[in-house]
Fold this sequence. Notes:
By secondary structure, the chain is mainly α. α2 (about 30-45) packs parallel to α5 (about 85-95) and α3 runs antiparallel to α5 (about 85-95). It is built from 7 helices and no strands. It starts with a helix and ends in a 9-residue tail after the last helix. The model has no long low-confidence stretch (mean pLDDT about 90). It has helices at about 1-20, 30-45, 45-75, 80, 85-95, 100-120, 130-150.
Amino acid sequence: MWYFKIILIIVFAFVLYQDFKDRLVYWFLYPIIGILAFTVQLYVLPLTIALTNFGINLLFVILILGVSTIYVKFRKLDFKNTLGIGDILFFLFIAASFSIISFLVLFVFSLVFSLVIHLVLNTKKEASTVPLAGYMSFFFGVVYTVSFIVDNTFLYAY
């Protein structure tokens, strides 16, 4: 199973690099992330529980995207300038990664991490886009890297 994690970490690195370099990521990397993350989860959990985790995590992501859409419409902003399709795809496919509680905690902390890193790295005061999928890929890549060192069963506990 370690080889799936290594491939997943490499794909996260590709997303990070592409998002920083061009703010464009190849679309097929997102399904690869979802498939590999789900496969790693299947190694620890039975299929029914892994599918339940994925379904509830997906509902959470859809809720977040729905609230974001309502907020953007309420503030009369352009949705294309607030959240990119790559970010949405990353949200949807990363939902296949962990158990429900672990996913909720890691997802929220990855968003906070992305905000802090962007504020630290972006010293310019001009408005710019945020490589959100790249920052979150870095965060989740670190989580999977740490899972090599420590016992990772808590990430999949239900």
